[in-house]
Specification:
Strand 11 (296-300) and strand 12 form a beta hairpin. With 479 residues, this protein is an alpha+beta fold. Helix 2 packs parallel to helix 4 (232-238). The protein is 15% helix and 25% strand.
Length: 479
C-alpha cells in the first residue's frame, strides 16, 4: 500500500528516491495508485481530489537510455517505458482532520472504467477554513474489501477576510524526454521543500506532439498523462501540495493550436479514436482536478487573490488579421476577468496566465498577447491595468522556456515567467531586452511568490529559482 509517512521519501534524492519507490512496491493484486492523486481547486471550504486506479504499483521501468518511437499503436502503449496502465475497479475516499483518520468522513465508492481512463474526481464541500486535512483513496475488491490505499493531505485556504502569510509557486513546460532526475523533475523536489500553500501548473503539462510517442489518438494522449504523473517526484509533490492546473497548446492537441472553425468540426462526446482539439479539451479536464470552468479565481485570505485564465478554448485563429475582434480570451472570459479583478479587495492580485501578456517574445511568434498577432487585445488589457491604477496586480506566466521579470514600459505591468521545468528544456529566448527586462535567464526552474506582513506592512515577494530551488533573482513590492 503506497502510503509512506508525509514527505519521507523526499529526503532520499535522485536514484535513492527511485530505489525507495521500487523497493516499497506492493506486488499484491491491483488495483493500485501508480499515478497517485492530485489535489486541486482548494478554497476555504472545498477541494477536488483526483484519483486513478492502475494495474501495477509502479510504471513500466524506464532507464532513460532509449527514446520510444514517434508512433506506437494503441494496443502496444502499455509496454512503453514509463507507461502506467489503468485498471477498472471501485475507489472511495476518506477525509479527516486527523492523521490517523479518526472520525473520517467516507465518500461513497465510485466505479471507474476505461471510459474515463480509470479516473475519478471527488468534489468535497463543507470543509473548515485554514485546516489541514488528510485524505485516503481506497481501492476495493469486488467484495468491497480494501485492496490498496494511497494517502495525501492539504490545507484549506483562510477566509477572505483573515490574514495569513501565503507562499505559492508557478511552474510549467515539462517534457518527459527532458527529465533531469531518474525520479522525474528536480523542481518538484525543490518545490516540495519550499513550504508552499499551493502551486499553479501553467500548462504544457505534457507534450502530445513533440515527446515520443506522439499522441494522435485518445489512448496515446492519456498515456502521456499517466507516464508523466507516475514519476515519483511528481507523485509525492501532488499528494501533499494542492495545485491549480492550466492547459496550453501541447497538452490540448499540438503547438500553437486553436479551435477549428465551422459546424463540421468534430465535437463528439466519445473519448475514443483519433485525437482532435475538442477531445483534447475533455482529456485535460479528465486528467486534472477541475470545476465547472477552466478560467476561475481563488482567494487565499486577505492577502492574495489569484486568477487562472483559459488561453485555448475561445481564441481566434492565430493567422487571423489583428484587430478589435481578434481574441485569446473571448468576450465572456475577458469581461469576467476585468469585473472580478476590479471587485477584489485582496491586498495583492496575481494573474497566472498560460502564455505571456507582457513578454517580450520572439518576432516570429504569433500565439500570445506579447506578439503582434494579438497586439490589440494584449495592449488594451495592459493599458486597462494602467487606467485603473492596478499597481497591486502582477502576472506570472508559463509557455516561454526562459525565466524573466519584465515590466511593460507603456503600462508598468509586471510579469514573471517561470521558464521551463528543466535546464535541458530551456531555450528560445530572443535575448535580454533592457527596455523590458529586470531579469533574464535561459535556464529551467520555477517562480515562487510570498505574501507577508511581518513588519506590519503587507509585502509581496517574487523569486526565480533554479531547478534545485536556489534563488537566482528576487523582487519585492509593498502595499
Amino acid at each position: 500500500m503506497r502510503s509512506p509517512s508525509p514527505l519521507s521519501p523526499l529526503v532520499c534524492f535522485g536514484g535513492a528516491l527511485l530505489a525507495a519507490f521500487v523497493a516499497s512496491a506492493a506486488h499484491a493484486a491491483g488495483p493500485h495508485f501508480a499515478t497517485g492523486m492530485k489535489i486541486g481547486e482548494v478554497t476555504a471550504d472545498s477541494a477536488i481530489v483526483w484519483t486513478r486506479l492502475t494495474a501495477s504499483d509502479q510504471p513500466v521501468p524506464d532507464d532513460g537510455k532509449t527514446a520510444p518511437p514517434k508512433t506506437v499503436a494503441d494496443d502496444a502503449l502499455d509496454q512503453v517505458p514509463g507507461a502506467a496502465p489503468g485498471m477498472a475497479g471501485q475507489v472511495r475516499l476518506l477525509i479527516s482532520p486527523n492523521a490517523d483518520f479518526a472520525g473520517a468522513r467516507q465518500l461513497p465508492a465510485a466505479s471507474v472504467t476505461e471510459a474515463t481512463d480509470f479516473c475519478h474526481q471527488w468534489r468535497i464541500a463543507e470543509l473548515q477554513p485554514a485546516t489541514r486535512y488528510h485524505v485516503r483513496a481506497e481501492a476495493l475488491d469486488p467484495s468491497g474489501q480494501v485492496r490498496n490505499h494511497f494517502d495525501g493531505s492539504f490545507s484549506t485556504a483562510p477566509r477572505p477576510g483573515d490574514w495569513a502569510d501565503v507562499r505559492f509557486a508557478a511552474a510549467g513546460c515539462q517534457a518527459y524526454h527532458d527529465r533531469d532526475d531518474p525520479a522525474g523533475l528536480k523542481i518538484y523536489r525543490a518545490m516540495a521543500q519550499a513550504g508552499l500553500d499551493f502551486a499553479a501548473i501553467t500548462g504544457d503539462d505534457v507534450y502530445y506532439d513533440s515527446d515520443p510517442p506522439n499522441a494522435d489518438t485518445v489512448a496515446a494522449a492519456r498515456f502521456h498523462w499517466a507516464r508523466m504523473y507516475s514519476q515519483p517526484l511528481l507523485v509525492e509533490f501532488h499528494r501533499r501540495v494542492p495545485s491549480f492546473f492550466e492547459k496550453d497548446d501541447h497538452d490540448t492537441m499540438k503547438n500553437d493550436s486553436w479551435p477549428p472553425p465551422g459546424p463540421n468540426a468534430d465535437r463528439s462526446d466519445e473519448l475514443t479514436g483519433k485525437l482532435n482539439f475538442f477531445k483534447g479539451i475533455r482529456i485535460f479536464r479528465e486528467q486534472v482536478p477541475m470545476g465547472e470552468k477552466t478560467y476561475r479565481t481563488f482567494r487565499w485570505g486577505q492577502g492574495l487573490q489569484i486568477w487562472l485564465t483559459e488561453g485555448r478554448d475561445f481564441r481566434s485563429p492565430n493567422n487571423m488579421a489583428d484587430g478589435p475582434e481578434k481574441t485569446i480570451w473571448g468576450r465572456e472570459q475577458l469581461a469576467w476577468l476585468k469585473e472580478s479583478i476590479l471587485a477584489s479587495d485582496a491586498t495583492f492580485r496575481v494573474l497566472i496566465s498560460p502564455t505571456p501578456i507582457v513578454g517580450p517574445d520572439r518576432d516570429k511568434k504569433a500565439d500570445n498577447h506579447a506578439n503582434q498577432a494579438f497586439f490589440h487585445e494584449g495592449n488594451a488589457f495592459r493599458q486597462w491595468t494602467k487606467e485603473n491604477k492596478l499597481t497591486n496586480l502582477f502576472v506570472c506566466c508559463g509557455d516561454r522556456h526562459w525565466q524573466y521579470h519584465s515590466v511593460d514600459p507603456a503600462s508598468g505591468l509586471h510579469e514573471f515567467s517561470c521558464g521551463g521545468a528543466s535546464d535541458s528544456h530551456a531555450g528560445g529566448s530572443p535575448g535580454l531586452d533592457p527596455a523590458f527586462h529586470r531579469f533574464h535567464r535561459v535556464k529551467g526552474g520555477f517562480v515562487s511568490g510570498s505574501i507577508t506582513r511581518a513588519d506590519g506592512i503587507p509585502t509581496i515577494t517574487f523569486r526565480h529559482h533554479d531547478v534545485n530551488g536556489k534563488v537566482v533573482y528576487e523582487f519585492q513590492a509593498r502595499k
